[in-house]
Amino acid sequence: MNKEVIIIGGGLAGLTAAYLLEKKNISSTILEARDRLGGRIHTARPDDHKRMELGATWLGKQHKSLIQLLQELDLDLEEQHLGEKAFYEYISTSPPQLVQLPPNDDPTWRIKGGTDQLIGVLQDRLTQSDIRTGQIVLSIQETDKVEVRTQSTVYYADCVITTLPPKLLADRIDFTPALPKELRQISNQTHTWMGESIKVGLFYDEPFWLKADSSGTIMSNVGPVNEMYDHSDPEKKSFALKGFLNGAYHSVSREERKEIILNQLRKYYGDKVDGFIQYEETVWRNESFTFTDYSESVLPHQNNGHEIFGRTYWNGKLLFAGAETSPISPGYMDGAVESAKRVADQI
């Protein structure tokens, strides 16, 4: 008799786990709190030609499990354009410098057509799984099976895979019996990848940054935008700049953040930056189904890939997946895929 499996979280780890389990003829029920799938993969699509990656975006040749999955799903890659020159700000007392970039021997790639293509194709491949959005999990209890209670429904299964960031899991879900003390402590001290990030993007009618003998690449020690890149699509139907705003600006308004970004970009490109046609952002700290505040100081990537997440609990009824749980590429899309492979093998 096949096992009944519940997967908590419909992001990359959860959908990949379901996909791999179906290969073993094991169906699953996926419970996702949001009204969309993807988790920290979030591609904004204002219209048919525009797309802005506001979550996970890039991968490299070292991300072997992710690349293997993309090939299996017939998804292609496109190289991230960095160009030959970039604006660089070293200190606030000196103006930005247009500097020559070194040769790019290890290219960075994006998923052609948008990172959300990966989520869509995985969803299409799931023919035996039941996907339910808007399901906020409140508690998990071990009985002769496992009981998972959401705000509206109670589910039962032989085992549960949770793919939530460990800190979020520790804060939001009640476990009966309680999880081991060490696991609770480590979870509370585990950094949530991208949790403090603010990803921003601006669409334009033309890529004026290329005409300025630049590439759209900006590196700044001064900020508040620390990095920015050309985010135009290869077909030249959409032109955009995308970057990272300092996470300290999560508490100001959207309009204030937009003006802060434009003010910095004017230093490099002048008033042309004011001609944007659309502004997009995701403040990940404000995403309650991704981030919850730390009760103590936590360093970037702290406890990501800790071996405690690779164990099974409740006699194999409870397993942990998600980008933070993988010792390989912890915090990245590749780590999410690696964790899904692990739990699929453990069931």
TrEMBL record:
Protein name: Amine oxidase domain-containing protein
Binding site for substrate: F244
Gene source species: Rhodohalobacter barkolensis
Segments forming a coiled coil: none
Listed cofactors: FAD
UniProt keywords, alphabetically: Oxidoreductase
Limits of the Amine oxidase domain: 12-91, 101-347
Gene3D superfamilies the record matches: FAD/NAD(P)-binding domain
MF annotations from Gene Ontology: oxidoreductase activity
Signal peptide start and end residues: none
Family per record: Belongs to the flavin monoamine oxidase family.
Binding-site list for FAD: V137, E324
Alphabetized Pfam families for the sequence: Amino_oxidase
Keyword Oxidoreductase (UniProt): yes
